[in-house]
Amino acid sequence: MDLLKLAGKLVKYCSQQEIKSWIDKNVIDAGGNCFFYSAVISLLFPGLKLIKGKHSKQFAEDSAHFYLEDEDGGIIDPTTNQYEAGKLYAIKEISALKNIDYIIKDPMFKSLDKEDQNKILDLYNQEG
User: Fold this and answer.
1) Which of 7, 27, 30, 124 has the smallest number of Cβ neighbours within 10 A?
2) What is the pLDDT of residue 85?
Protein backbone atom coordinates (compact mmCIF):
# COMPACT_ATOMS: atom_id res chain seq x y z
CA MET A 1 0.00 0.00 0.00
CA ASP A 2 1.45 3.36 -0.91
CA LEU A 3 1.97 6.10 1.64
CA LEU A 4 -0.76 8.36 0.22
CA LYS A 5 -3.45 5.68 0.55
CA LEU A 6 -2.28 4.89 4.06
CA ALA A 7 -2.44 8.59 5.01
CA GLY A 8 -5.96 8.81 3.58
CA LYS A 9 -7.09 5.82 5.64
CA LEU A 10 -5.56 7.35 8.77
CA VAL A 11 -7.36 10.67 8.20
CA LYS A 12 -10.67 8.84 7.67
CA TYR A 13 -10.14 6.74 10.81
CA CYS A 14 -9.38 9.85 12.89
CA SER A 15 -12.46 11.61 11.53
CA GLN A 16 -14.65 8.58 12.29
CA GLN A 17 -13.30 8.48 15.85
CA GLU A 18 -13.99 12.21 16.26
CA ILE A 19 -17.58 11.72 15.06
CA LYS A 20 -18.06 8.71 17.35
CA SER A 21 -16.70 10.73 20.27
CA TRP A 22 -19.10 13.59 19.45
CA ILE A 23 -22.05 11.16 19.35
CA ASP A 24 -21.05 9.54 22.65
CA LYS A 25 -20.79 12.94 24.32
CA ASN A 26 -23.84 14.69 22.84
CA VAL A 27 -26.61 12.25 21.91
CA ILE A 28 -28.54 12.23 25.16
CA ASP A 29 -32.05 11.45 23.89
CA ALA A 30 -32.05 9.32 20.74
CA GLY A 31 -35.79 8.65 20.56
CA GLY A 32 -37.48 10.95 18.06
CA ASN A 33 -34.41 13.13 17.60
CA CYS A 34 -32.77 11.45 14.60
CA PHE A 35 -33.24 14.50 12.34
CA PHE A 36 -31.79 16.93 14.86
CA TYR A 37 -28.68 14.94 15.71
CA SER A 38 -27.98 13.80 12.15
CA ALA A 39 -28.44 17.34 10.80
CA VAL A 40 -26.19 18.84 13.48
CA ILE A 41 -23.46 16.30 12.80
CA SER A 42 -23.64 16.96 9.06
CA LEU A 43 -23.17 20.69 9.75
CA LEU A 44 -20.24 20.14 12.12
CA PHE A 45 -18.52 17.47 10.01
CA PRO A 46 -18.64 18.54 6.35
CA GLY A 47 -18.54 15.72 3.83
CA LEU A 48 -21.27 13.70 5.48
CA LYS A 49 -24.60 13.38 3.68
CA LEU A 50 -27.83 13.80 5.64
CA ILE A 51 -30.17 11.02 4.50
CA LYS A 52 -33.92 10.79 4.92
CA GLY A 53 -34.90 7.16 4.91
CA LYS A 54 -36.70 4.38 6.70
CA HIS A 55 -35.58 1.84 9.28
CA SER A 56 -37.00 -1.67 8.98
CA LYS A 57 -37.83 -1.68 12.70
CA GLN A 58 -39.14 1.86 13.07
CA PHE A 59 -42.45 2.53 14.72
CA ALA A 60 -45.53 2.78 12.49
CA GLU A 61 -46.17 6.42 13.41
CA ASP A 62 -42.62 7.46 12.42
CA SER A 63 -42.66 9.13 9.02
CA ALA A 64 -38.93 8.83 8.44
CA HIS A 65 -35.58 8.03 9.98
CA PHE A 66 -32.59 10.30 9.42
CA TYR A 67 -28.98 9.18 9.41
CA LEU A 68 -25.68 10.00 7.70
CA GLU A 69 -23.55 8.56 4.93
CA ASP A 70 -19.84 9.17 4.61
CA GLU A 71 -18.03 9.67 1.29
CA ASP A 72 -17.61 5.89 0.86
CA GLY A 73 -21.30 5.14 1.52
CA GLY A 74 -20.65 4.06 5.11
CA ILE A 75 -23.55 4.56 7.51
CA ILE A 76 -23.35 6.73 10.61
CA ASP A 77 -26.57 6.53 12.62
CA PRO A 78 -26.28 8.62 15.79
CA THR A 79 -29.65 7.46 17.10
CA THR A 80 -29.42 3.80 16.14
CA ASN A 81 -30.15 2.64 19.68
CA GLN A 82 -33.77 3.79 19.45
CA TYR A 83 -34.54 0.74 17.27
CA GLU A 84 -33.86 -2.97 17.32
CA ALA A 85 -31.24 -4.12 14.82
CA GLY A 86 -32.56 -3.77 11.29
CA LYS A 87 -31.93 -2.34 7.84
CA LEU A 88 -31.83 1.25 6.62
CA TYR A 89 -33.46 2.28 3.36
CA ALA A 90 -32.50 5.63 1.84
CA ILE A 91 -35.20 7.81 0.34
CA LYS A 92 -33.26 10.98 -0.47
CA GLU A 93 -30.47 13.29 0.61
CA ILE A 94 -31.58 16.33 2.63
CA SER A 95 -29.78 19.65 3.03
CA ALA A 96 -29.10 20.49 6.66
CA LEU A 97 -28.28 24.06 5.61
CA LYS A 98 -31.78 24.50 4.16
CA ASN A 99 -33.19 23.34 7.52
CA ILE A 100 -30.81 25.27 9.75
CA ASP A 101 -33.58 27.59 10.99
CA TYR A 102 -35.48 24.57 12.30
CA ILE A 103 -32.31 23.16 13.89
CA ILE A 104 -31.44 26.29 15.88
CA LYS A 105 -35.05 26.62 17.12
CA ASP A 106 -35.16 23.02 18.33
CA PRO A 107 -35.07 22.88 22.17
CA MET A 108 -32.24 20.31 21.87
CA PHE A 109 -30.00 23.01 20.34
CA LYS A 110 -29.35 24.44 23.81
CA SER A 111 -27.99 21.07 24.95
CA LEU A 112 -25.04 21.43 22.55
CA ASP A 113 -21.86 22.97 23.87
CA LYS A 114 -21.32 26.65 23.09
CA GLU A 115 -18.57 25.98 20.55
CA ASP A 116 -20.88 23.76 18.46
CA GLN A 117 -23.76 26.22 18.83
CA ASN A 118 -21.52 29.03 17.60
CA LYS A 119 -20.30 27.02 14.59
CA ILE A 120 -23.90 26.37 13.56
CA LEU A 121 -24.97 29.96 14.21
CA ASP A 122 -22.05 31.13 12.03
CA LEU A 123 -23.32 28.90 9.22
CA TYR A 124 -26.83 30.28 9.76
CA ASN A 125 -25.57 33.88 9.53
CA GLN A 126 -23.62 33.05 6.35
CA GLU A 127 -26.76 31.57 4.79
CA GLY A 128 -29.06 34.39 5.97
Assistant:
1) 7
2) 78
- Report d(CA 52, CA 36) in Å as an integer: 12
Question: What angle, rounded to 10 degrees, do the helices at 114-127 and 34-44 form?
Answer: 80
pTM: 0.84
Q: In this structure, are residues 57 and 86 in contact, taking their beta carbons and an 8 Å threshold?
A: yes
Half-sphere exposure (CA, 13 Å, Cβ side) for 107? 4
By residue range, what is the domain housing residue 105? 3-127
Contact of 73 with 50, CB cutoff 8 Å? no
Degrees to nearest 5, angle at CA 111 with 66 and 45: 50
| Residues whose CB is less than 8 angstroms from the CB of residue 120 and which lie 6 or more positions away in sequence, other chains included | 40, 43, 44, 100, 103, 104, 109, 112
Query: 88: burial class by Cβ within 10 Å (0-12, 13-18, 19+)?
Result: middle
What's the structural domain count of the chain?
1
Q: Are 72 and 100 in contact (CB under 8 A)?
A: no
Convert the pLDDT of each residue in 14-66 to its tens digit.
578 888 999 999 998 778 889 999 999 999 998 899 999 888 776 666 678 89
